[in-house]
Structure formats: structure tokens, C-alpha cells
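Example 141.
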Amino acid sequence: MNASDRDLDPLIQAAQAARERAYVPYSRYPVGAAVLTEDGHIVTGCNIENASYPLTCCAERVALFAAVAQGHRRFRALAVVTSNGGSPCGSCRQVMREFAPTMTVIIADTAGNRRLTTVADLLPDSFGPEHLPTGSGGGGA
Ligand SMILES: [Zn+2]
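Predicted structure in complex with zinc ion:
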């Protein structure tokens, strides 16, 4: 299920607020993200860097992992807010695809510009749980 337009403003606002909490002493590129669960909850994340650079985690994955840890596995939309409308990285696209291969993704900037896309458009011809022998995972129970 995709998000309707009226769902998007609170989601973008939540991502913007999460961006303010980003821990980015190295890149100084704060990112905020917010996911809208199928049952209407919003869970946020921000990017969190580390002095050991590869340990950094993106806002989108922080939000999705937090949502999963809170018991959510089905998502309608994810919003990401940066200073310049940066697009989700490949790792985050793959994590989005695991749980919500068709969800709406809103890419927004701090000036209020936004564009809508989908996980399917961001990660075409992707690999997913159904390609594994167990065939489960994703949005399932
Ligand atoms: Zn990422």
C-alpha cells in the first residue's frame, strides 16, 4: 500500500525534526528519515557517524531498524530530508526493499522541495527474500 498525499506532510516534518538530531561531526551532512508504518505510526531516524568511519549508519536504516525493533514490518512510505535533496544510498535502498519493495519514498530538502519515487524505481531488478530457498522475510510475519 502506498501513502496518500495527506500522509506526507507529517512524515516529512518528522524526518526534518530527526535531522536536527543527526550525529555528524565528520561529514557535517545531517540526514533525517521517517517511515510511515502500515498502521499509521511514524518512526524516525538520523544518520549517526563514528570515528571509525565505516560504522556510520544512515538515517534511513536507523529509522527502518528502529521501526522493526518496535514491532513494525509493513511500511507505506519513507521520507528522507537533507540540505540538498540527496537520494538514499544503495545500502538503504536494499534494506527498504527487504520490507517494502513498493513503498513510496519522498526525497525532500530543507527548502521544502520534494520529489516522490518508489523503492521499485530506486532499486530496479532487485534481489529479495523470495530469491532465497526459505522465500520468507520482508513484510511477512
Ligand atoms: Zn544509506
